[in-house]
Amino acid sequence: MIDPLPILQSTFGFPGFRGVQESVVSRVLAGENTLAVMPTGAGKSLCYQLPAVVLEGTCVVVSPLIALMHDQLRAATAIGIRAATLTSVDTDQMETIARFRRGELDLLYVAPERASGGAFRDLLSQAKLALFAIDEAHCVSEWGHDFRPDYRLLRPLLDAFPHVPRLALTATADAHTRADILEQLGIPHDGMIVAGFDRPNIQYRISPKDNVTRQIADLVAEQPGPGIVYVQSRAGTEKLAEALAKTGRKVRAYHAGLDPAVRARNQADFVASEDMIICATVAFGMGIDKPDVRFVAHAGLPKSIEGYYQETGRAGRDGDPSIAHLFWGADDFAKARQRIGEVELHRQAGERTRLTALGALVETSGCRRRILLKHFGDDAPANCGNCDNCLNPPAAIDATEVARKFLSA
Ligand code: ADP
Ligand code: MG
């Protein structure tokens, strides 16, 4: 088998593998079907990009978001990897198809809608394939927090090329979702590699909402570095951005309703800045590579523990001390329960389980990190020493009662 290390160093410029990357890459190079469960920021992309360069043929990457694909394309092209995207907004699709046929692509990114179609299957049979990479693989599971029906249609494509190895990647899989991914994508149970989920440099804090604008202003005053504040509504992001701007900090808003040019500029400004705050909906963050985010705040309950972990995981990727502060209220639980009442019946039980798990996290007077890590099946000490409850063991707080009341109602 080819030694990937020289390419890791020359093409990617990294001195060595990080964590489980090496095990994942070895499995892929050995042609074994694999599910890699690795936290956000752990370096999942490398696990298929490196084999894509090393192996003969094209690595087909299924990815759920066009913006994500284009970010990856830019980064890959910048280091000399031969990559292309096939999405509805690409004007060079004919050229990409021709390059693929000539065997000139290491990486070909496609959306699941495209990947699951018959025309795409025909195309793939016209050149050599190295690997199928299914990014954000939790989208295949109805149990997962981000179900995308088109991911379900990938299996026939994979099965049409039985000799091409599959690599599924996700950051956010609880035990149930993992089992589902293995089953749906035809990966053996011993083909799963799970990296540790702990992010020891992130200090977790969770507080009941009181005056959330003031609470976030206090956090912002404490933290001069870049920060992300997740807000539930589009209007809310703009309102909060305005309020925080009054504290003298540089602030931008980000949500899917903004003019695309403004949205792109706000994102670029934030990524380039050493002290900016961005008030955003959860539309912000996927695929954004900013290592020095010093805090992530939630001005309201996130959708699930998976979402919370993924969003807070954008803090402190450089390993320096960072804060994740969640502010929640009883009204958040009421709204969440109402939302659950509106989803398809067969999904309600899963959603309810997710809300209960979230309730346990905000309600606990014990270690936050322990609950978080247990949720993902990681071992955890009783006391992490770097969350609000471990640092300041609470006396019986009213919030506990409030949460219990609203969770059991
Ligand atoms: P994920 O998809 O798991 O969230 P990414 O693939 O976006 O993570 O990688 C996160 C960051 O880690 C990127 O900046 C990437 O360049 C960096 N990275 C990946 N592998 C390594 C490595 N072996 N050594 C150093 N940095 C790495
Ligand atoms: Mg990724």
TrEMBL record:
The keyword DNA-binding applies. This is DNA helicase RecQ. The gene is recQ. It comes from Sphingomonas immobilis. The chain holds residues 1 to 409 of 587 of the full protein. One of its GO terms (molecular function) is DNA helicase activity. Residues 25-191 form the Helicase ATP-binding domain. Its EC number is 5.6.2.4. Residues 215-359 form the Helicase C-terminal domain. Belongs to the helicase family. RecQ subfamily. It is an enzyme of class 5 (isomerase). Its cofactor is Mg(2+); Zn(2+). Keywords: ATP-binding, DNA damage, DNA recombination, DNA repair, DNA-binding, Helicase, Hydrolase, Isomerase, Metal-binding, Nucleotide-binding, Zinc. It catalyses: Couples ATP hydrolysis with the unwinding of duplex DNA by translocating in the 3'-5' direction.
